[in-house]
């Protein structure tokens, strides 16, 4: 069978299994197997696959037909141009979360420069934190480590702390930090929310994509999400908003004055979350939309 025939047959099979974008998914699986960039497949349409290659592609396509996410099958995904290994212990990073990470590194970099200027122009105000770090960030619920790692890569002067309740997720995040060369500037903590952190830490930025699916809705999600993303990465409590209540109530204690919180949330949750951050100490600066123009990110400043 040629490359083109395999693509056609496999795409038909995946379409029958209700997999989204079956042709693209097939091409990505085949490109992974043949270790080629996807576009190079087009130059190899007439190439005949060996029996071993055919067996291997059948196995990959079968797994995708059982709705295992492509990223789990190939073992990694791209996030902000960085490669992140993923498995069943971590949420597969989503494209909209890249927008959150980008807002985070823009702020951290500007915060780093303004502190640097302050240190230069008002030496009397220099305190230990100005000398020891440009800016610090906490990634609350780091999963694969994607946000924390992107911040560390894009803000070379920053120190980044990441926490998660899942030890297995943290193992993957550590591996991803190493793979992206930022292990030195990342610290990982294991535990339930703020209880994971030593007291006394203060951050310029608290960034999080917390679990936000209402518990009862998890059973209705797409198979790839429901059966393959970890339950603990999805379940946001009865109304999906448990983590936003917690963060609006407690995050201020962990932020430096003028620090910010940046949170991803689910479609339709913006109004409720805005209300939590109408609390004293917070000013909501922006609610931003994702690529489909749905509000998905809240940015609030701590006084
Ligand atoms: C939606 S996932 C986000 C993962 C990653 N930051 C991303 O954006 O792809 C939420 C993460 O929060 C973690 N988590 C859930 N409950 C937690 C808790 N009480 N304390 C700390 N982390 C928690 C989960 O284990 C999961 O890794």
Can you tell me about this structure?
This protein is 41% helix and 18% strand. The relative contact order is 0.10. The longest helix has 27 residues, at 95-121. Mean pLDDT is 94; it is low at 126-132. By secondary structure, it is α/β, with parallel strands linked by helices. Helix 1 packs parallel to helix 4 (51-65). The strands form two sheets. Strands 5-4-3-6-7-9-8 form a seven-stranded mixed β-sheet, with helices on both faces. Strands 1-2 form a two-stranded antiparallel sheet. It is elongated, with a radius of gyration of 22 Å. The protein has two domains: 3-66, Orthogonal Bundle (Helicase, Ruva Protein, domain 3), CATH 1.10.8; 95-302, Vaccinia Virus protein VP39 (Rossmann fold, 3-Layer(aba) Sandwich), CATH 3.40.50.150. Bound molecules: S-adenosylmethionine. S-adenosylmethionine (SAM) binds next to helix 8 and strand 4.
In a few lines, what is going on in this structure?
By secondary structure, the protein is of the alpha/beta class.
The CATH architecture name of the largest domain reads 3-Layer(aba) Sandwich
Shape label: elongated
The CATH superfamily of the largest domain is identified as: Vaccinia Virus protein VP39
Count of separate structural domains: 2
Give the fraction of residues assigned to helices.
40-55%
Strand content: 15-25%
Structural class: alpha/beta
Outline the biggest β-sheet. Answer: 7 strands, mixed
Query: CATH topology of the largest domain, what is it called?
Result: Rossmann fold
